[in-house]
Amino acid sequence: MHSFSPWTARNRWVWSLIGVLILWAILSVLTDRVSLHSLSGVATSASFLVLAALGQMFVVTTGRGNIDLSIASVIALSAFVGLIVIGGSDGRIGLGLLAVLGIGLAVGLTNAALVVLFRIPAMIATLATGYVLATTTLIANRSIAGAVASPALAFVAGGKVGGVPVMFLIALAAVSLSSFVLGKLAYGRSLSATGQNARAARLAGVRTGRVTATAFVISSVLAALDGALLSAYVGGAFLEMGAPYLLQSVGAVVLGGSLIFGGSSTAVGTLFGCILLVLIVTTMQIAGLPPGTQDIVQGVVIIGVLALAGRPVLRRISRTGPDARAAAGSQ
After folding, report:
1. Vertex 35, ends 30 and 36: CA angle to 5°?
2. Got the DSSP string for 76-97?
3. Measuring CA to CA, how many Å separate 3 from each of 15, 17, 105, 267, 312?
4. What would you report as the CA-atom Rg of the chain, rounded to the nearest whole angstrom?
């Protein structure tokens, strides 16, 4: 146990993995609804959350309490635009995806400008952007009548290859790419340095403004792609489509072991955090709990995991002083 504590401090994602294993074991014992089919459903649901959560993870890593609150609106608007532009035709998928990714790029650049250039706190800036997008979604809603998802995109969103959901394969690819960016590329190291101490990073030659701006663009682009795939999966779009992904994207990031004050994130942990949240929601739905109670339980679980996972970090900080914060966050 003496060596286990430092190891878990360096690999905070292990708590979400343990949670997944425990909850799955409980479900397997208490209900006969748990099967390979239900596991496939959990993987598919978690995959849509993974795309949104990975984008949120990049924003959180920039530090200063940055969170992207426009994700829900980007998902909803992209779902509408994707259906309208593609119009159920496989031949228009490329055009539809370009339109959707254009939305993500425009929103990401807008958020980046508000936060980096105008120095508006991220939560306020992205919340305001989300309100604007919500109004745009209302306008798009008037043109959605008769729109259907294209067969090819519907297969990508809900089909399987060898019994494995295609969306889960896409989620794994996104997690692998994000892990590579964070761990191997100069941008990943610059992102962590910016989150740990922006001033020190600037003195070291890191263009912190550009790094932060890129994180917001990544978040919006992933949310936009998520919206297009989600609309193909459900076969339509509705105004509150992205609402559940706001709380859950933040929750998955912190449950996965990323530090909420920035500087250190794990894409693999974010994947486990998404699966854990989906399992929690599935368990509450089986138990017949109302939606409000489900939100309360998710909040309590997030707080509990944060408290458990953060204890080793806090102990090291208290022993070594304020200057250890950056060192603790880099692990």
Report:
1. 155
2. HHHHHHHHHHHTT-GGGHHHHH
3. 16, 19, 45, 24, 12
4. 20
Phi, psi of 253 (to 5 degrees): -65, -50
Q: Residues near 249 by Cβ (< 8 Å), separated by ≥ 6?
A: 49, 52, 53, 55, 56, 71
Partnered with residue 161 across adjacent β-strands are 164
* Contacts for 1 with CB less than 8 Å, ≥ 6 apart: none
Token digits of residue 137: 């979604």
Of 179, 157, 172, 171, the C-alpha closest to 57 is: 179
Rounded Cα–Cα distance for residues 198 and 329 (Å): 13
Q: What is the DSSP string of 21-36?
A: HHHHHHHHHH-TT-SH
pLDDT in tens, 289-326: 888 888 888 778 777 766 665 554 445 445 544 444 44
pLDDT in tens, 250-273: 999 988 989 888 999 999 999 999
Tokens at 164, concatenated: 């494995």
Within 8 A by CB and 6+ apart from 200, the residues are 193, 326
Q: From CA 25, how far away is CA 37, in angstroms rounded? A: 16
Find the mean pLDDT for residues 97-126: 97
Q: What is the bridge-based pairing of β-strands 164-165 and 160-161?
A: antiparallel
* pLDDT digit string, tens, across residues 8-22: 767 778 888 888 888
d(CA 70, CA 227): 13
Of residues 52, 48, 47, 53, the one with CA closest to residue 13: 53
Buried-exposed string 177-195: b where 16+ CB fall within 10 A, e elsewhere:
ebbebbeeeebbbbbbbbb
Q: Which residues of 141-165 are buried (b: 16+ CB within 10 A; e: fewer)?
A: eeebeebebbeebbebbbeeeeeeb
pTM: 0.90
Sign for the CA dihedral angle at 147, 152, 158, 159 comes to positive
